[in-house]
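ARCHIVE RECORD
Type: protein–small molecule complex
Small molecule: glutathione
Source of inputs: curated submission
Record status: active
Notes field left blank by submitter.
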Amino acid sequence: MITLYGFGPGHGLPDSSPFVMKAEVLLKMAGQPYRIDTTGFSKAPKGKLPYIDDEGERIADSTFIRWHLEKKYKIDLDRGLSDDQRATAWAFERAVEDHLYWTLVYARWTDDANFDKGPRHFFRAVPAPIRPLVVFAVRRKVRGALRAHGIGRHSPSEITALAARSIDAVAAHLGGKPFFMGSEPVGVDATIFAFVVGTLCPIFETPIRSAAERHENLKRYVGRMAARFYPDLREIAGCQAAA
Ligand SMILES: N[C@@H](CCC(=O)N[C@@H](CS)C(=O)NCC(=O)O)C(=O)O
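STRUCTURE (tokenized, with ligand):
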């Protein structure tokens, strides 16, 4: 059976990482049985989660996990899409994972109140005497990553404006469709769902979340995806699960 290495439930979500949630939805879409292991971070091949172990083969990174599932199990998670639609799906995936994601990291890790409500909990297992030092060092590393990405060089209002533009684009493309590319979910829905859920996560007070909350279609979409892929959940990120 496939093992998915993730962080585990956090921030009121199935996993605190949108990339892990994406990978989990991809596994569900692929119809492959899996189990979750939350103890693998220290052995992560690329120093990040998620990664999977599939009969001894370890695959790191949610996109490579998708490609592995499609190749090994001979499925096309974009079945029914034209080349044009596949290109659109890929472009949105990149916008959300490589752009919107970093605005969420900014909101969660640099704002003290949000940090206390969210990421600070990751450090619970660190021995108390050294915990403040570890927290300080990791937050400094995250700020460095935000600067290296580029998003961390902007002012808070500029970051919000960029995030809102991506959210508006996602909402506009979704429009009145049940799923991101049409009447049935395809691969990109795993990404859009995971990151919209992360954006709407009610424990964080951010203008980015407010920008997402303005779009009723995004909230209904999250509820629809939850009903399909997390049937045990009645609610996620403030959205009622409903088909
Ligand atoms: N491109 C990777 C991104 C994964 C990622 O950024 N994971 C974050 C959690 S959301 C992580 O493990 N960060 C730990 C670190 O950077 O030390 C993917 O698609 O899986």
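CURATOR ANNOTATION: The longest helix spans residues 83-109.
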